[in-house]
Write a structure and sequence with these properties.
Blueprint lengths: L5 E10 L3 H13 L5 E14 L2 E14 L2
Antiparallel strand pairs: 1-3, 2-3
Length: 68
């Protein structure tokens, strides 16, 4: 097994559909410019209410990617 070094980066994903979709949006966007994404960790989940209903989700997460 090789020894790897990882860099961690904090992201905030958002969605009107739900927290899972917010996570997927953040990872998909990060994957356009970063490679070797290996893991993620959810740090915080929050939302915006409009007229007493959930209108928007935000999820703060940390992603780890392996350095070349």
């Amino acid at each position: 097994m090789s020894e790897h070094v990882y860099k961690m980066l904090e992201l905030v994903g958002s969605s009107t559909k739900g927290s899972d979709d917010a996570i997927r949006n953040a990872i998909a966007r990060a994957g356009k410019t970063l490679h070797n994404l290996d893991w993620f960790e959810v740090l915080e989940t929050r939302g915006h209410l409009a007229e007493g209903k959930i209108a928007h989700w935000q999820v703060r997460l940390r992603v780890g990617f392996r350095l070349d």
